[in-house]
Recover the amino acids of this structure.
C-alpha cells in the first residue's frame, strides 16, 4: 500500500473549499487557543533559555518569535514557538494522536507561511491539512507507538509539521514524499522526559523538523519515497512490526477530518490532560460538599492502566513534575478549590500542606479499564474519605473542554485573553482575536505575526 504517496496526494490536492465549514471553524478556534498558550509560555523560564539559544545561533530574519520582539530563520522560529506553545502543557489534545495536535503544526505553518508570504486562507488550509496527516498517522500507529515510550506529539507532529510546511512552500507530490521521508528520520521524543523542560522541546523540535524537511525537499534533498509503509520505515520502527494498521491512516483522510471527529480537546487546566477528569471530579466534590483539607483521611483515584505511565511523578518536587502528578493535582484542587496557571510554582508543589495531602492520594486500575482497547479512555473515579467516616465519590468520563464536553467560543476567547494579559495590549489582544476569526480573509499572515511579537521582554 502506497501510504506515503496517498498522504502526499492529499497534502497537494486538498483545498480550503473542500474542507467542511465546521472543520474550518474548529481550526480557527484551536489556532487562537495555541497562540494564547504560546504567548503565556513565552514568559516561562525555559523560554528564556530557548530565546538565548536562538539568538546565539542566529539566522536570517524571516519569521517572528512570539512574544519576543525579534525575528529569526523559519526553522528556528518554529523551534522557539513550538517550545513556547508546550511550555505550560496548556495546549490542545487529540485522542487518535494521543498527544497535542496544534503545537507542532501551527508554529511550523506560521513560520513557513511568513517565509512564503502566505495569506490567511493558505495558512488555515495548510494547518488543517497538517493536523489531519498527524492525527490519521496516530489512528494507524497507536496505541503501540505510545506504549513503546515515544511521545506522539514529537513523532507524529514532525510529519504534520512537514505536511503543513510543504503545502505552504507549494511542493510537488514527489517532493512532499521527500519531505515526509526526511521528517520521518528526524522525528524523536521520549516520554521519560515528561515533567522536564525537554517535553516542550519535543514540540519545538517537531515543528522545526517539519520546516527543515520541507525546506530541504524544496531544494532537491532526497529520502525514501515510501517512508511510512516501508519495512524499515516509520510505522514499523515506531509502533513495531505488525502493530500498526496502514489502512487506518489513509482510508478516511479528510472524511471526516479528525479535528471534527473524534475532535480536539481544549484544556481548562495547565497540566497533563489525563489529570483533568480527576480534577473536575475533585473540584465538584469539594465545592458541593464543602470538603476541608484538614478533614480528609484519604483520596482514592481509579482509571485506566496507562494513567500511571503518563502521570509519572507521584512525589513531585517541581512545578513541571506537578503537571504530570495526579497526586499534586488532587492536593491542589482540594487545597485551593481551583487549578490555575499561578498555582504551578515550585514553592506550591513543595508546600508542606500540599505534600501532606499528596501522601494521602492513591491510584488503582479500574477493572473495566484494564485492557489495551481501553488504554486511551480518560474516565476517572475519585473517592474522598473523611476522618469522620463519610465518603464522597464521583466519576468523570469526559473532562470539560474535551470534544464531548466542549468549551464555548466565548470561553476560548476568554482563555486567550487571560493567557496574553500583560503580553499584548488590550487593543492588540482584540485585534488578534478578530484576525484569527476572519483568517480566510487575511491578505498576509505577517499582519498577524507582527501582533504576536507582543511587548518587549
Amino acid at each position: 500500500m502506497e501510504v506515503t504517496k496517498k498522504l502526499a496526494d492529499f497534502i497537494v490536492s486538498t483545498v480550503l473549499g473542500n474542507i467542511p465549514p465546521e472543520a474550518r471553524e474548529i481550526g480557527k478556534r484551536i489556532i487562537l487557543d495555541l497562540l494564547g498558550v504560546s504567548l503565556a509560555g513565552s514568559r516561562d523560564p525555559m523560554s528564556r533559555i530557548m530565546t538565548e539559544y536562538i539568538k546565539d545561533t542566529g539566522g536570517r530574519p524571516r519569521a517572528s518569535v512570539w512574544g519576543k520582539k525579534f525575528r529569526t530563520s523559519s526553522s528556528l522560529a518554529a523551534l522557539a514557538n513550538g517550545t513556547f506553545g508546550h511550555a505550560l502543557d496548556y495546549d490542545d489534545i487529540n485522542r487518535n494522536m494521543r498527544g497535542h495536535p496544534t503545537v507542532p503544526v501551527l508554529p511550523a505553518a506560521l513560520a513557513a507561511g511568513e517565509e512564503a508570504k502566505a495569506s490567511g486562507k493558505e495558512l488555515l488550509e495548510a494547518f488543517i491539512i497538517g493536523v489531519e496527516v498527524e492525527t490519521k498517522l496516530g489512528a494507524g500507529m497507536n496505541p503501540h507507538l505510545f506504549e513503546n515510550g515515544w511521545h506522539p506529539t514529537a513523532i507524529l507532529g514532525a510529519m504534520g509539521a512537514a505536511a503543513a510546511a510543504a503545502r505552504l512552500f507549494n511542493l510537488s507530490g514527489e517532493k512532499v514524499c521527500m519531505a515526509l521521508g526526511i521528517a520521518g528520520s528526524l522525528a524523536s521524543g521520549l516520554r521519560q522526559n515528561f515533567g522536564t523542560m525537554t517535553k516542550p522541546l519535543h514540540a519545538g523540535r517537531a515543528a522545526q523538523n517539519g520546516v527543515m524537511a520541507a525546506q530541504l525537499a524544496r531544494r532537491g534533498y532526497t529520502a525514501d519515497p515510501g517512508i511510512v509503509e516501508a519495512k524499515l520505515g516509520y510505522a514499523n520502527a515506531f509502533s513495531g512490526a505488525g502493530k500498526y494498521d496502514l489502512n487506518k491512516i489513509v482510508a478516511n483522510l479528510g472524511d471526516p477530518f479528525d479535528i471534527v471527529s473524534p475532535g480536539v480537546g481544549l484544556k481548562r487546566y495547565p497540566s497533563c490532560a489525563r489529570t483533568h477528569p480527576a480534577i473536575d471530579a475533585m473540584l465538584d466534590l469539594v465545592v458541593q460538599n464543602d470538603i476541608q483539607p484538614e478533614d480528609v483521611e484519604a483520596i482514592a483515584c481509579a482509571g485506566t492502566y496507562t494513567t500511571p505511565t503518563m502521570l509519572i511523578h507521584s512525589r513531585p518536587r517541581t512545578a513541571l513534575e506537578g503537571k504530570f502528578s495526579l497526586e499534586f493535582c488532587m492536593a491542589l484542587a482540594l487545597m485551593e478549590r481551583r487549578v490555575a496557571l499561578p498555582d504551578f510554582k515550585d514553592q506550591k508543589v513543595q508546600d508542606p500542606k500540599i505534600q501532606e495531602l499528596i501522601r494521602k492520594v492513591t491510584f488503582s486500575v479500574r477493572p473495566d479499564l484494564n485492557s489495551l482497547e481501553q488504554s486511551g479512555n480518560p474516565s476517572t473515579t475519585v473517592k474522598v474519605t473523611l476522618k469522620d467516616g463519610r465518603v464522597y465519590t464521583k466519576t468523570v468520563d469526559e473532562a470539560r473542554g474535551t470534544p464531548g464536553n466542549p468549551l464555548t467560543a466565548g470561553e476560548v476567547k476568554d482563555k486567550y485573553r487571560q493567557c496574553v494579559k500583560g503580553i499584548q495590549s488590550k487593543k492588540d489582544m482584540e485585534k488578534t482575536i478578530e484576525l484569527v476569526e476572519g483568517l480566510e480573509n487575511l491578505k498576509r499572515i505577517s499582519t498577524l505575526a507582527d501582533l504576536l511579537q507582543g511587548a518587549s521582554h
The chain is about 55% helix and 5% strand.
